Amino acid sequence: MKAFTVVELLVVISILGALAALGLPAFKQATDAGKKTADVAACKTVVSAYLTHAADNEGILMKGYDANGTAFDCNGQLMAGEDAHEAHRWPWRLAPYFNYGFLGGTHVNEAKSFIASQGGISQTYLVSVLPSVGLNANFIGGNDYTSFASLNKRGLVATRLVQVPKPGNTVAFVTTRSEAVGKRYRGFYYADAPVYPGKWAIKYDDLSSPKTTGYVSARYNGNAVVAFLDGHVIIMPYNQLSDMKLWSPLSP
Q: Which of 48, 63, 156, 217 is found 20 to 30 A from 21 (Cα to Cα)?
């Protein structure tokens, strides 16, 4: 049998390289499309649960961070001790409204994989901090962190659904990202508005600090997945999200 010549081997390698180069973009597009679909589903799950909770509680909008909040774990036990702090964030308090379907439901893609790889107490904490989408908590529902107390005093926080004049134009949840101990994560439980507490960066850069974009993640070619307070979900460009009117329905 005749062996391949060096030239023939180089030709074969070149052809394989060209095929790989053609296939990789298509593979990435398919992967991104799958992740986007998962984020859209997560947004729909969360905003539906959020609105159902409001309907069950005389229209009161759940706080993103409630210093007096309580919640029950997956076994129906009141979260106490260290876990009591995790109940202050919305994921555990809202969990009964989506049957505690965290992984694959509200925590998808990278957030799901990361949390699933952890265990014990750390997993309970991570579930409370790293949902794939974050709540517009500073203006919707409220945020008990001291630094945001002035918003309540100025009457800028909608605590009841009836207070919001245009729910269909008000951001409820959006895809988010975060950073801790030098590591980046896909997901965070709240998002800061474009000009409060600090101004967003003019252009979105996925490699920048999450704080520069209010923790918002426009991870799909500069687009974020957004759920509005009437329940509809869309893909929205980062620059359009910088309109403060979408975030603060009670601003003058």
A: 217
